[in-house]
Amino acid sequence: MALTPTLTGQPEYCLTCHADLPEISPSHPVETFGCVKCHGGERLALDADLAHSTMRGGQNPSDFSVVEASCGGSDCHSGSAGQDRDHIHRVMTSVQATYAGAIAGVRYAFGAQPDQTARLGIFAIDDAQVTTSTGLTSLAAFDPATETAPPVIAFAQNCLNCHLAADPLPGADYARFTGCAACHTPTAGMDFQPNAPTIHRLTTAIPYTQCNTCHNRGNYSLRDMQFHPRTDLYGRSIERPDDRLQDYYQPIGQFTKCEWELDCVDCHTRGEAMGDGDIHSHKLEIQYVQCRTCHGTLAESPLTRTIADPNDVALRLAFLNPVLDLKVGDTIMVTEKGEALWNVRQRPGGRFEMVGKATGARYTVPLVKGSACTQKLDQQESRYCHECHAVQR
Amino acid sequence: MRPSFFHHLHPPTIPAPQARWRYTLGAGGLSVYFTLVLLVTGALEMFFYIPTPEQAAPSIQTITYLVPYGWLIRNLHYWAAQGLTVAAVVHLLRVVLTGAYVPPRRFNYLLGLALLVLTLMLSFSGYVLRWDEGIRWALVAGTNLLKTIPLVGNGLYGIVVGGDEPGPATLIRFYAWHIFGLTLLLVVVGVWHLFRVRRDGGIAAPPPAHRTDPSRITRAQLVRREVLAALLASIALLALAILFPAPIAPPISPDSALTADARAPWFFLWVQRLLRWGDPFWMGIFIPLIILIVLTLLPYLFANIPPMELGRWLPPRGRRAQLVTAAIFLGLVVLTMLEWFKL
């Protein structure tokens, strides 16, 4: 069964065996992309071994070892930062990929470096264009063999499981691919075998369970340099919503209702999740959305923008994940850095409606302004909101 | 029957004892048959094979997977080539071990030796035409061997490879040699070889006065045996072609590294083993050349086999030639086995 994708113009016969695969995403129609452009492989071979022998990254062409060849290119995901098409550069420099924050923190804590500024990452990387005050120009590769402090060596042995290039911990709750697919392929909770056919999907509607494959459960103990899974969760379904509050982050945390009802990506922006293109030393240099970003303060309403440009990135994002019919002329919320909260739109009458990116659920966003909130105007960070609004458990 | 060119090459009668399978082993005839199969299947492959570095391996994939029965044609070509190599070597052994190389058949023996060399060169050039990862390191190693020859080595390398390293010029040269140069030589020398068999008095046999069985078989009987052999060989070829596909590998990728698995084609595994043991020139060029020279000199060094001893296996006066040849053959087999099983 031949297919000649319009992007390559070269016939490929992969669908002879793989006709039952679902299309990976509406943005990558198989008639346009085919299979080989992303996956590599021998497009003419009808022998499985030969056909698969030159595939990039095995099952996962988005693994960082091959992502540039698979997903890159100036027309695809290595485009310009100005057009918001530099995804590969942004993710490769992000703290999720470099793990620079964890490495720097542990090395600082055990005396291997004099401050918490990152010097080392999972892989060596340079950034030619630093755009923020905390951005670094380069990281060298973290090499456990050159470390002398025993806790740092133990950290290297036991704790390098939660960066984007690492294979996940065993177990359905941790099931994820590496590279782009770690987040964009929803695998969490699947009976996930690293080398078995599992799922052919890419999405920006990323459910919290996918984030939880790294950002949840258990404790990262600095005392014995081990990851301790939460034993109280054993055997419970990851999908049961009534468990979510219990499952969410470490038990000592304080969380508001929206933090455990919404998905992570409903509030946290693409800049926070995938980085801003700079190499940072700590997640706090990149994570900035606060309660007030959406809810405003007593004095101020949240920031908004009315979409005027048909190429506005908000429209592109809504096109990728069509949970709402965003149009030119719509007013959406934006963060203080100007990033579009494209799923929070002002409705006629002035109220703001959030649409869950992974669920499609609709919520009206309550504003602080005009409410009975008595918080001081100079104490508006989320931790102050938690004082009153944290869910009791 | 009207005489035809075919009758120039095909004897009207031959002595019955020398027409037996157990005497000829059918090796010469099978070599002719395999050559015919190779010419036909090779001509068919030419309609789809594209001799450029980018297209060579994909076009072979096209032949193998997409062209109707292309896989069968390619596998038949592959197995006929392996069969030809084996049959030619067996034929050479038969000729030496029956003493048939002595004058007046000395010149035809040399023609036969030339045909064996041509067969090996055709085998290697055909193997290289795959232009995929499976042949890459054998091509690099094989052509680099040429460079080690004193004085003429670099010039020879330039002629064979057409540049400083294997590239488009190499592929088109191997293609031209395989399709045209070597094939033309093989056909011309091959026909000459067949013609000389008759010219030299037919298959080696004792003088008529010394024959215990003076009977002869007719042309019709001979053709019947030849057709039977060709049928059996065809069944064997088809079975091999259906059950054991010819090797195929991904196209050459610039960033792939030489691995311990890199292998010469099986008929040069003995050279690969020798190369592990010493200097490339002495092991890879000199020793094979010495073997060829010894085989060439055989009818000059050990020519005193009386006609009465011809037409039978292991004539007593040919002992020394038999021992030398057997030693060479066993040596090559042992070296091949050592490399094959990575001992």
What does this molecule look like?
The complex is a heterodimer of chains A (393) and B (343). Chain A has 393 residues and is α+β, with helices and mostly antiparallel strands. Chain A folds into two domains: 87-271, no CATH class; 288-389, no CATH class. In chain A, 26% of the residues lie in helices and 9% in strands. Chain A is built from 18 helices and ten strands. Chain A has helices spanning 15-18, 30-33, 36-39, 48-53, 67-71, 87-93, 95-98, 100-109, 150-158, 181-184, 208-212, 244-247, 257-261, 264-267, 270-274, 291-295, 313-320, 382-389; strands at residues 120-121, 125-126, 138-141, 219-221, 226-228, 304-306, 331-334, 340-346, 352-355, 362-365. Chain A has a five-stranded antiparallel beta sheet. Chain A has a three-stranded mixed beta sheet with strand order 1-3-2. The longest helix of chain A is centred in the N-terminal third of the chain and has 10 residues, at 100-109. The radius of gyration of chain A is 22 Å and the shape is globular. With 343 residues, chain B is mostly helical. Chain B has one domain (10-251): Cytochrome Bc1 Complex, Chain C, CATH 1.20.810.10. Chain B is built from 13 helices and two strands, in the order αβααααααααβαααα. In chain B, strands 1-2 form a two-stranded antiparallel ribbon. Chain B is globular. The mean pLDDT of chain B is 94. Chain A binds chain B through residues 13, 42-47, 50, 53-54, and chain B through 58, 61-62, 64-66, 248-251, 253.
